[in-house]
Amino acid sequence: MSAIEMIDIENYRYTLPEAYIAKYPLSDRDQSRLIFYKGGDISHHAFSELPEIIPAGSWLVFNNTRVIQARLEFKKPTGARIEIFCLEPDDPVDYHQSFQSTRLCKWKCLVGNAKKWKEGPVSLRTTIGSYEVFLEARITGQFRDSYTIQFNWDNSRFTFGEIIENAGSTPIPPYLNRSAEETDRERYQTIYSRAMGSVAAPTAGLHFTDRMMSRFGKEGISKGELTLHVGAGTFVPVKESDARQHMMHAEKVSVSRTFLELWAGQPSGLIAVGTTTTRSLESLYWLGVKLCKGDKPVHGKISMNQWENESLPQDITLRESLDALIYFCRNNNQDHFHFSTQLMIVPGYVFRTISGLVTNFHLPGSTLLLLIAAFIGDDWRKVYNDAINRQYRFLSYGDSSLLLP
């Protein structure tokens, strides 16, 4: 694809009836429906059949990020309500260190009702067990659409992670048009979520159950994990008529050296669970390419920019890329490879890492739908039309698909 060829976003819109948006999850995760697309053919199944449908010898890769209770409701001394939506840590910038803070930390946040918060602190009280905690927030910096917020609290017995898990609410997607409920705390998490940091769930994984996981091994299907902390940018629509003018959000990723070594031993047959996993894997390939050509981290930071792949060598094999990533980890005594990615995958992109994709149904004209169109071509419309005709449930709490080009 030419680097200057425009992508008309109107070609990636479809009519999604409001009634087809799943407001709530099913009572049984794995009883959602699954549309199976393979080389142009479509069939319909229960999600619980996935272990039998996936080709033998495949391996599934999951995003093990955990959604934080990111919405915090504070009050000014006047009684005005201020909602603070935690996006990502600012000081300390490391997620784990920030969640382990016991007195003070700073986060990049969105602020609701910000016009009524000109200066001074806002506060909230919460009870953890038999202890009361007083949490205070102050604005210390402002960007175009977000703020740096300093949090401090009066009980060092508790970490910041413990406080927001207790005091916050689940950041369910805005298109659900409802407030978060107590059941969302559990259902808007995958069963394998571990690494706290996301403000949106990797929703392709919401369908998996423990009984399904145990069956994958019996079917000869391996499993692997990485971590991409999903940001609020996942909900930002493509507003530009040319999708190439859209500014992709950056997200932080971590993958273990052990995973890279396992992947190098089995580079084919990989099926990504979700678009977040897909972006991570494809970004890893291109970062390996950068290492192959001699690029070094800038100020110790490793990142993948939005269209950077288009200017990189296109003839590096996946194995060569993986070997470069593994060598980098070993040479720097790193058990994990950490990076950020803005990679935007659009029609015309050539996939380097995956042979299949498990994913939900996405919003019209979204970057996620563009990724699907890149993976299966114009047949994305065939899949979506069939799902609508059969009254599938759409978006985060909706049904799923297995796509094998």
Task: Describe the secondary structure blueprint for this structure.
Blueprint (H helix, E strand, L loop, with lengths): L32 E6 L2 E6 L3 H4 L5 E5 L1 E3 L3 E5 L5 E11 L3 H5 L4 E9 L9 E7 L2 E12 L4 E7 L6 H8 L16 H4 L7 E4 L11 H9 L3 E7 L22 E6 H9 L4 E4 L1 H18 L10 E2 L13 H14 L4 E6 L14 E5 L6 H10 L2 H11 L10 E5 L1
Parallel strand pairs: 1-18, 3-12, 3-14, 4-11, 14-17, 15-16
Antiparallel strand pairs: 1-2, 5-6, 6-7, 7-10, 8-9, 9-10, 12-13, 13-16, 17-18
Helix pairs in contact: 6-8, 7-8
Describe the structure concisely for a colleague.
The chain is α/β, with parallel strands linked by helices and 405 residues long.
Structural commentary:
- The structure is a single chain.
- This protein is of the alpha/beta class.
- It folds into two domains: 9-66 and 187-404, QueA-like (3-Layer(aba) Sandwich), CATH 3.40.1780.10; 70-168, no CATH class.
- Helices cover 23% and strands 27% of the residues.
- The protein contains ten helices and 18 strands.
- The protein has helices at residues 50-53, 95-99, 160-167, 184-187, 210-218, 257-265, 275-292, 318-331, 367-376, 379-389; strands at 33-38, 41-46, 59-63, 65-67, 71-75, 81-91, 104-112, 122-128, 131-142, 147-153, 195-198, 222-228, 251-256, 270-273, 303-304, 336-341, 356-360, 400-404.
- The chain has a ten-stranded mixed β-sheet with strand order 2-1-18-17-14-3-12-13-16-15.
- β5 and β6 (81-91) form a beta hairpin.
- α6 (257-265) runs antiparallel to α8.
- The longest helix has 18 residues, at 275-292.
